[in-house]
Amino acid sequence: MIIARTIEALQEAKRQFDGSIGFVPTMGALHQGHLSLIQQARAENDVVIVSVFVNPTQFLEGEDLDAYPRREEADAKICELAGVDILFMPTIDQMYEEDELCIGAPAIRGYILEGEKRPGHFDGMLQVVMKLLNLSSATRAYFGKKDAQQLALITQMVKNYFMDVQIVPCEIVRDEKGLALSSRNAYLSDEEKQRALALSRSLKRATKMVMAGEYDAQTIKAEMLKVLEETDKVEYVAIVDREFNALERVEIGNTIILVAAWVGKPRLIDNIWI
Ligand code: PAF
Question: Which residues are the active-site residues?
Answer without folding.
Answer: 34
